Fold this protein.
Amino acid sequence: MKKLKVTIIGYGGMGSFHAKLIQANPEVEVHGIFDISESRQQAGEADGYSAYASLEEALNDACADTILIATPNDVHKEIAVQALEAGKHVICEKPVTLTSEELSEIMHTAEEQGRVFMVHQNRRWDSDFQMVKDLYEKRKIGEIFHIESRVQGANGIPGDWRHLKAHGGGMLLDWGVHLFDQLLYMVDSPLVKVAADLSYVLGDEVDDGFISYLTFENGVTALVEVGTTNYIKLPRWYIKGTKGSAVIEDWDLKGKIVKQSGLEFVVAPKPIKAGQGLTKTMAPPSEESIIKEKFEKVTTQMDPFYTNFAKVVRGESEPIVKNEEVYQLMKIIESIFKAAETGQVVDVREHSYSK
Ligand code: NAD
């Protein structure tokens, strides 16, 4: 089968990572690269790719089928629209754009041109998330009613452009789009409302983290937290179900499940001394009333994105990341900014995309 030829625009950290993903997939190949930085052009050439002298030259090359955008966030829209108008299919890094309006313009252009536009929401295939999704869908700890999803580091905001508003910096646009996308993808009910606080501990003009609280129509609640000044991390996932709790510590996927044994009403917990008082409510459950299980690791296959993308281009498959889903995601991100700015809970029902 003829491989799709992909030209990478923006050969920085993620652009060069895409080159490896493309090389590992039999459906696609790297056709060339373009970066506005001379040193990154040279890095691309050193990796064996030919570098175009300009974006226009890359877009005018009739041999390339697809443009992959891995530049800072603020120029995603203009490059996507130009590439679609030049007749190319487009894959775009997250966050797709800075606003839902910009995404709407891209979707419109893609439709007009009859070209495929897909956003690389790759963390839908992270193993830790797949473990949580499996737990949710198979009801292994009963009905899940609360989810805490956190990523925390102690290295501040990395790089240069991520500190700047004009480039679409900040952690809500950087990590928020992954974590909210995972929840919207997993929870089988519309999101109803959001509350949020952004943090500015580092004194940047953009947020260096945030805490947000989501409520879905089926009653599921979620706390989503991102921090860049956390010298002690909380677990990546903490999940509560009607019959148990589960935790995943970190990217190494170490976790555990503790669930009811069926004897919880027979073997009562013993009161314990807690601080200056006595408590039975907060005592650990009796050993007989619980079952402790290892949280079985899920090893996800290679990111299925490119395989799906090639099939979508050939008209053989539906996209695994739908633009309507990403549009809803961008509306939710806008609502989170609004909730943080106003200190109000924001009703997001009108943005809910029904699956
Ligand atoms: P980076 O700074 O390492 O690389 C960006 C590159 O784009 C730089 O080499 C820069 O010179 C180049 N560039 C800037 N403006 C350009 C333009 N107009 N035309 C061509 N090249 C241009 O940044 P990064 O970490 O690679 O992030 C790039 C994109 O990838 C961002 O949108 C980011 O959010 C996304 N990203 C996604 C993931 C993921 O897991 N999906 C991970 C990291 C980054």
